């Protein structure tokens, strides 16, 4: 994302001297998204615990991080408990305007160990060189043996022309991408290359990013580099539509979550059409707003942004995205940041709920307006139901679970008065109905 630069914020000195490795996870196998059908019972929620949709990638619970956006010392404990599983470094345009230094990498890896998070790195592309990219991979994976698997090339390259003040189209980016990828893989053939990191991508080809000659950035990228890219990535910030758009509302966010599905489905079909194969998809930057807006009913620091993100994340999981990075872990001003100087923001607690969700996705569907449901199986065998009420009023909805359902469930609740609160054992169904608080995320754990 195009972020204005602030002065460089150095990492905490006690981290800089540490050199541990972040955990390295295997590459998730790309799987086609399930074809969802209407629920067998109209106006109801439906779950089939016997219909597995495959493993949930552990890398979907991520965020962004950078030398310019360090977590305040007073908030390290909360960051460590966040549930964030992967960090993209250095987030945003900073990495295209600065060369990463060894001490910054070392401090970042120490921080990843504190969070037990996997690391991904974006190499400098705008004014970057193959030699510098190769040297970064050599330092990180050969000299320091950090074993970073995922490396991204580019950060919203459709903005490079404006940033450089010279012609820069998709053809030039494709050539540079290929050269950089080849140099990096020559050093470590086992790395996975992520790209093209486009923003403003959606299901309507006419509205998708074009360069100054009219060429479609994603289509031309896939045609030129579909054989060497390992993970296809996009960014998504739906609001505001432009600098003159009115402030977004809760209803704007409520209606937006459904746009994830066609966006990801179109990208998957485009990958298949242009490359002849399936490739994993990553969403490496996402938030409801690309500006630093704050203090509104639907700005990134608002409670309703948490509801939006909970449903957005559920839809990305259902569409088999393998890597997701929320924008951003910490930020000193404006509305961005899971953790702010004053404490965690509401969206922070979405991760507190999801870290109890499970590892295996199960079939679920909703035919109820403003209510979403996602089902999973945990390692302990528990069935979990993530039920999100986007409406401003409570809802009493029919739930149909194939097989018998327990009378009680352990409940974790995120709503305007509960910050991912563990409510313990609660009555589960009322005459086959769930009673959902307004603007809520409820996780039911059934054993």
What report would you give on this structure?
The protein is α/β, with parallel strands linked by helices. The protein folds into two domains: 57-356, Glycosidases (TIM Barrel); 361-446, Sandwich (Immunoglobulin-like), CATH 2.60.40.1180. It is built from twelve helices and 19 strands. It has helices at 13-16, 76-80, 94-97, 102-115, 130-143, 160-164, 170-187, 217-225, 250-256, 260-275, 303-318, 348-354; strands spanning 44-55, 62-64, 86-89, 118-123, 150-153, 192-198, 231-236, 281-286, 323-326, 339-340, 343-344, 360-366, 371-377, 383-389, 395-401, 408-415, 418-427, 433-436, 440-446. It has a nine-stranded mixed beta sheet with strand order 17-16-19-14-13-12-1-15-18. The protein has an eight-stranded parallel β-barrel with strand order 2-3-4-5-6-7-8-9, surrounded by four helices. Strand 8, helix 11 and strand 9 (323-326) form a beta-alpha-beta unit. Helix 5 packs parallel to helix 7 and helix 11 (303-318) crosses helix 12 (348-354). The chain is globular. It starts with 12 loop residues before the first helix and ends with a strand.
């Amino acid at each position: 994302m195009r972020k204005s630069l602030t002065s460089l914020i150095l990492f905490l000195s006690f981290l800089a001297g540490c050199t541990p490795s972040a955990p390295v996870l295997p590459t998730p196998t790309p799987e086609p998204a399930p074809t969802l059908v209407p629920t067998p019972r109209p106006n109801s929620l439906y779950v089939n615990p016997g219909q597995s949709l495959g493993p949930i990638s552990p890398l979907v619970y991520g965020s962004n991080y950078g030398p310019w956006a360090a977590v305040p010392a007073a908030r390290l404990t909360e960051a460590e408990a966040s549930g964030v599983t992967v960090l993209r470094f250095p987030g945003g345009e900073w990495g295209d305007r600065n060369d990463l230094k060894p001490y910054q990498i070392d401090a970042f890896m120490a921080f990843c160990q504190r969070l037990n998070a996997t690391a991904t790195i974006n190499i400098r592309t705008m004014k970057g060189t193959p030699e510098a990219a190769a040297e970064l991979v050599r330092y990180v994976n050969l000299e320091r043996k950090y074993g970073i698997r995922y490396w991204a090339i580019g950060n919203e390259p459709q903005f490079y022309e404006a940033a450089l003040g010279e012609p820069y189209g998709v053809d030039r980016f494709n050539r540079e991408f290929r050269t950089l990828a080849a140099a990096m893989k020559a050093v470590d053939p086992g790395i996975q290359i992520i790209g093209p990191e486009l923003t403003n991508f959606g299901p309507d080809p006419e509205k998708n990013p074009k360069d100054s000659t009219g060429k479609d950035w994603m289509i031309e990228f896939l045609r030129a580099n579909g054989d060497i890219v390992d993970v296809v990535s996009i960014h998504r910030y739906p609001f505001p539509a432009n600098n003159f758009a009115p402030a977004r509302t809760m209803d704007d966010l409520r209606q937006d979550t459904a746009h994830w599905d066609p966006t990801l489905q179109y990208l998957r079909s485009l990958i298949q059409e242009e490359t002849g194969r399936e490739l994993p998809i990553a969403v490496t930057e996402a938030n409801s707003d690309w500006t630093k807006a704050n203090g509104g009913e639907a700005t990134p620091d608002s409670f309703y942004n948490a509801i939006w993100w909970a449903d957005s994340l559920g839809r990305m999981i259902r569409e088999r995205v393998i890597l997701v990075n929320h924008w951003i872990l910490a930020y000193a001003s404006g509305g961005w940041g899971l953790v702010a100087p004053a404490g965690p923001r509401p969206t922070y607690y979405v991760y507190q709920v999801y870290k109890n969700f499970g590892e295996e996705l199960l079939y679920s569907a909703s035919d109820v307006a403003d209510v979403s449901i996602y089902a999973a199986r945990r390692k302990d065998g528990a069935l979990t139901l993530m039920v999100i009420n986007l409406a401003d009023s409570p809802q009493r909805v029919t739930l149909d679970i194939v097989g018998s359902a327990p009378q009680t469930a352990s409940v974790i609740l995120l709503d305007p008065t509960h910050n991912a609160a563990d409510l313990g054992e609660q009555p589960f169904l009322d005459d086959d109905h769930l009673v959902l608080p307004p603007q809520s995320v409820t996780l039911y754990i059934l054993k």
